[in-house]
Design goal:
Layout (H helix, E strand, L loop, with lengths): L1 E10 L5 H10 L4 E5 L5 H6 L1 H18 L1 H4 L10 H25 L3 E11 L2 E6 L4 E11 L3 E3 L12 E2 L1 H6 L6 E5 L3 H12 L3 E5 L11 H13 L3 E3 L2 E8 L4 E7 L5 E5 L1 E4 L3 E3 L13 E2 L2 E2 L12 E3 L10 H16 L13 E3 L4 E6 L2 H6 L4 E7 L4 H6 L5 E7 L5 E8 L2 H13 L4 H6 L9 H9 L8
Parallel strand pairs: 1-2, 1-5, 2-3, 5-18, 7-14, 8-9, 8-14, 9-10
Antiparallel strand pairs: 3-4, 4-5, 6-15, 11-12, 12-13, 16-17, 19-20, 20-23, 21-22, 22-23
Helix pairs in contact: 1-9, 3-5, 3-7
Length: about 475
C-alpha cells in the first residue's frame, strides 16, 4: 500500500499513539496507525492493566487473611497464582479488543508492522507478514515508547533474571525473589508476590523506598512493608548477579556496612526504562535526541518539520496517562485545533501497592528548595470513619501550600484508595482553587474523600476531627 492522501501516520499503538489517532480522526484527519505487536502497547498488555489485575487479586487475599477481624474463618484456603495471571491476561485482552473496536469506529487503519522514517513525510513499514509498505503523510507522530532498563553488564534471561514483562508472563509464584529497584513497578510486584506467600527482598540504591515521592510518604510505606515482614535494603548497590541452575546469587554493598550475599529463586530488575528510538531513522530525518530520548516542545513537535513525538520516548514522564495527554496535544496541533499545553508539574503519579500512594506537584522538601515559604497540612485516615469501617486506615493526606497566596503546590497521599482521591486535588490545582474552597466544598459522609476536606481545613490549623 502506498498512499499520497494520508494526513497522519502514527508509529506506535500504545496509550499515546492510539489516543492521538482517535483525536486526529475526530478532528477530520485521515490516519494510519502502525503497531508492530499489540494495540495498547506495554500499558494494556504488559504493564498498567495486568499488574492492576494482579494487585486486585492480592487485595482480595489480603482481606481474607484478615478474616478474624471481619468475623469469619476459612479452612483449607488455597490461592492459585497461575489463575490470577490468567485473569490478568483476560482483562488485558478485553481492553486490547476494545482499542481495536475504537480504531474501526473512528475509521483508523491499523497496519501490523515496524515503521521507520525513510524521508520527509514518508514511513516505510516492514509488515509482520513479510510485506513492505510505504506510507506518505504530511505529519508523522513517533510513539514508540520505552523498554525496561537493566544494570550494566547484567544479562536479563527471562528465566532467573526478569523484567516486569517476564514477571507478568510467569504463572508460577517464585518461592523467593529479590526486587532491584523500589520505584512503582518494584514496589507493586513486591506487594503481590509477598501477599501470595513469596519471601521478598527489595534492594534500592537510594536512601528510601519510592525515592521520587515526598519523604514522609516513603517512610509510611517502608513502615507498612516492614510490618508485613518484607526485607528492605535501602542505600544499597547491586554489585553482581549470578544466575545458577536453581537460584540467583546477588552481591550487594550497603552504603554503610559490609558486602552481603543474597540468594533467591528469581530477580526482578525494575530500575526504570530506556527509549525505543533506535532504527527509526530519526537522526537522519533531523530529529534531535538527548541520550536517546526525543526532544519535543510544548506542542510535541520535534526539531524536524512535520514530525511529532509523544509518550515515553520523549523522556518527559514515563506514565501512560501522560502519553495519552501528549497524544491529544500532538493531534490537536496537527489539525490546527485549540491547544491545551501540558503542565507536567500537575501530572498525577500513582503507585498501587499496599498502602497506595498518589501525588502531584512539589514535595515539601522540593518546595522549600525552590524558595517557597510553605504551609503543610496533614490529616490521618485513622480519623476518617469510612477508613475505619473498611479496616484500612493507615496513611494520611498531605498538602503543600504556598504561604502567601494559598496556591496548592503539591499533594501527597498514602493510604486506602488514594489513587482515586487524587484527581480532586489535581483539578483544584489546575482550576487555581484555594484550600479554603476545597474545605468549604461539602464532602459526603462517610467517605474517604473527607480526608481531603479535613487536610484543607488543616492548612488554616482548623481541622474538625483532629
Amino acid at each position: 500500500m502506498t498512499s499520497q492522501e494520508l494526513d497522519v501516520v502514527i508509529v506506535g499503538g500504545g496509550p499515546g499513539g492510539y489516543v492521538a489517532a482517535i483525536r486526529a480522526a475526530q478532528l477530520g484527519l485521515k490516519v494510519v496507525l502502525v503497531e508492530k505487536e499489540h494495540l495498547g502497547g506495554v500499558c494494556l498488555n504488559w504493564g498498567c492493566i495486568p499488574t492492576k489485575s494482579l494487585l486486585r487479586n492480592a487485595e482480595v487475599i489480603g482481606l481474607l487473611a484478615e478474616g478474624k477481624a471481619f468475623g469469619f474463618t476459612l479452612e483449607g484456603f488455597q490461592a492459585d497464582y497461575g489463575a490470577a495471571v490468567d485473569r490478568s491476561r483476560k482483562v488485558s485482552q478485553r481492553l486490547v479488543q476494545g482499542v481495536a473496536a475504537l480504531m474501526r469506529k473512528n475509521g483508523i487503519q491499523v497496519v501490523d508492522g515496524t515503521g521507520r522514517i525513510a524521508a520527509a513525510g514518508t514511513v516505510e513499514v516492514s509488515g509482520n507478514a513479510g510485506e513492505k509498505l510505504t506510507l506518505k503523510a504530511r505529519s508523522i507522530v513517533v510513539a514508540t515508547g520505552a523498554r525496561a532498563r537493566s544494570l550494566p553488564g547484567l544479562q536479563v534471561d527471562g528465566e532467573r533474571i526478569l523484567t516486569a514483562r517476564h514477571a507478568l508472563e510467569m504463572r508460577t509464584l517464585p518461592k523467593s525473589a529479590i526486587v532491584v529497584g523500589a520505584g512503582p513497578i518494584g514496589m507493586e510486584f513486591a506487594h503481590v508476590w509477598h501477599t501470595y506467600g513469596a519471601e521478598v527482598t527489595v534492594v534500592e540504591m537510594m536512601s528510601r523506598l519510592l525515592p521520587l515521592e515526598d519523604e514522609e510518604i516513603s517512610k509510611e510505606v517502608e513502615r507498612a512493608y516492614k510490618k508485613r515482614r518484607l526485607r528492605i535494603l535501602t542505600s544499597t548497590r547491586v554489585e553482581s548477579v549470578e544466575p545458577g541452575s536453581d537460584a540467583v546469587q546477588v552481591r550487594v554493598r550497603p552504603e554503610a556496612g559490609e558486602v552481603q550475599n543474597l540468594q533467591a529463586e528469581k530477580v526482578l530488575v525494575a530500575i526504570g526504562v530506556q527509549p525505543n528510538s533506535e532504527d527509526l531513522g530519526l537522526e537522519a530525518a533531523g530529529v534531535k535526541l538527548e541520550r536517546g530520548w526525543v526532544t519535543v516542545d510544548a506542542r510535541m513537535r520535534t526539531s524536524a518539520p512535520g514530525i511529532w513525538a509523544i509518550g515515553d520516548v520523549t523522556g518527559k514522564m514515563p506514565l501512560a496517562h501522560v502519553a495519552s495527554a501528549q497524544g491529544l496535544v500532538a493531534a490537536e496541533d496537527i489539525a490546527g485545533a485549540e491547544l491545551h499545553p501540558l503542565d507536567y508539574n500537575a501530572m498525577p503519579g500513582c503507585t498501587y501497592c499496599q498502602p497506595q500512594v498518589a501525588s502531584f506537584g512539589l514535595s515539601e522538601a522540593k518546595a522549600r528548595q525552590q524558595g517557597y515559604q510553605v504551609r503543610v497540612a496533614q490529616f490521618p485516615f485513622r480519623a476518617i470513619g469510612k477508613a475505619l469501617a473498611l479496616g484500612d486506615y493507615d496513611g494520611f493526606v498531605k498538602l503543600v501550600v504556598e504561604e502567601q497566596s494559598g496556591w496548592l503546590l503539591g499533594a501527597h497521599l498514602v493510604g486506602p484508595e488514594v489513587t482515586e482521591l487524587l484527581p480532586e486535588l489535581v483539578l483544584a490545582h489546575n482550576a487555581e482553587l484555594l484550600p479554603e474552597q476545597i474545605a468549604r466544598s461539602v464532602h459526603a459522609h462517610p467517605t474517604l474523600s473527607e480526608a481531603l476536606m479535613e487536610a484543607a481545613h488543616g492548612v488554616f490549623g482548623k481541622p474538625i476531627h483532629m
